[in-house]
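Researcher: Going back to the complex we discussed earlier. I've cleaned up the inputs and rechecked each line, so this should be the final set. Can you rerun the prediction on the complete assembly and write out the structure?
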Amino acid sequence: MKQILLAAAFAALSSSAMAPPTDAGKYQVALGDCEGCHGKNLAGGVVLTTPFGRMVTPNITPDKDTGIGNYTAEDFARAMKAGIAPGGKLLYPAMPYPSYARMSDADIAALWTYMRTVKPVKNSVNVNQLKFPFNLRFMMRGWNMLFFAPAPYANNPAKSAAWNRGAYLVSGAGHCGACHTSKNPFGADKSTALTGAALLGWFAPDLTSDQGAGLGSWSNADIVTYLQTGRNNHSLASGPMAEAVENSTSKMNDADLKAIAVYLKDLPASRGNGGGATGIEAQMKSGANLYDISCAACHGRDGKGSLIFPPLAGNPTVRQVRADSIVRMVLAGGRGASTAKAPTGQGMPSFAWRLSDSQAADILTYIRNNWGNRAPAVSPETVGHIRSALRSGS
Amino acid sequence: MQIIARALSRRRLLASVAAVPILAASADGRTISGELPWSPFAGEPPRPVNPLGWYFFTPGEAATIEAIVDRFIPGDHLSPGGKDSGCAVFIDRQLAGSFGQSSRLYMKGPFMPGLPTQGYQGDLAPAGRYRLGLRALADYTNGTYKKDFRALSIEQQDTVLAGLDGGKIKLKLKPGFSTKEFFELMLQNTMEGFFADPLYGGNRGMASWKMIGFPGARYDYRDHIDKHNQPYPKGPVSIYGQV
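Model: Rerun complete. Updated structure for the full complex:
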């Protein structure tokens, strides 16, 4: 009886309501991108480099000694939604419990049902390798008081069902803001949600409807295609987003992807990327020459790319206020998402051996201010900093 | 009975022979499925040579080689000469590296005379052939002109080189390594240095590529495919992206 009620509650929110609870729970794993941090087998051990030090993700398989085999349903729900593990241990918000707090009890329950069926893996993890004083867990009590207001998702009656479903997924299980919302010095979300943010040496793009840096020129179908396949006519998912697409969004059903698109397209435009650079004639001239001999063969002289090679003209990744992601791609190379519908996972080679800091800066300034793109110039110093950070492996 | 035993042993022999390449292949083979492999900073670009100093030649040898490459490719209105193009530096770096040691060739005996089409068959790697050849050349010019090659007049240098090429001069080398072969080795390596990518030390400023209109390491000609009978308008690009 309880299960029927649970399924009925689930039906109100998910289009995969007819599936048995473990499938429903498995779908929640995809929505929440659990594998992204806890690994394909959920046994943890993935290193997260944060501004506060290193964290290693814990084992969340039902192993009794090293996993969460001793959790009760209530323990699990409390960890997911309040950030508190059994024994009162406070989780760090690298675990996106501030987002998961918005998940419905039914979704959490379905997820728990599935988590009990995962194959237990013995893998002991030393989670907390943070720098002092961040390694002191009790400090999270203060953080939670300041920045954490747990509240389940509240339906907005003024908006459509799809909008509400999209908002629920984006702000809840999908925890898109974990990367795309900029953080204050304490690592908590700023109020400018989903306007883009720098983290882990990448810049997660602006997802608002801003025309310059955001998704203003994308149709709803463009967003669905991107999340489902990892690419569309505007861009190609790479870096952490490639992983998010592979583990999470490519496994979402069409209705949910369309709901996410409806919600994102309704986000008010951000303040943009600061507009085009001025006084960059020399960089543009040098960049045009270098683009011609290093980039044009794949991305095209017109910057339009092709089915395999992502376009640069109109590509939001190129036009963000900060150029971290594209500097990184030019220096280290990059790999696109590999999904069932677009399995190639095409790679871009490294150009670090061939381009000096100022040459890379010229090329990037050129592509950020050509073919209709307008974004701030990239300086050789920025390239130099990112080059040494990448080389030192941080 | 004996026939059956022989047949079995033959079958076993064939089976074992067949197994050898299978085993060898499995040692090298690598199966890639799903997505393409990729890793950051991947690639093994050739490293540009340091243009300063000599790695293999002694100062005397270097001066002789510089004089020789400048006679093979004299500077004129078409291009700088072999010396200013870096051909001697190119040869020096090649002799100091894997080419000089024949590290990719089987270099153990027995050393048998080969056919002319088979190239050099002796025990000396190129580094040894240059060392021997340049010493023999110095002996010859000092014996004949009382001077090192580099101190000869241009006419005398040309006479000596023509003699090495045409058979009039026989240097004291060793069996299996003729004077003509030494001349051809130097000429071949000079041309390589003149036309190779600048990162190897020769072809400075891509002068030879500019001379012949070779566009170098450009790789996208789609804009020009339909422009028949028109010269390609763009200058050369080196592997390291110099223009």
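Model: Worth noting: Chain B is about 45% helix and 0% strand.
Researcher: Good, that matches what I expected from the previous run.
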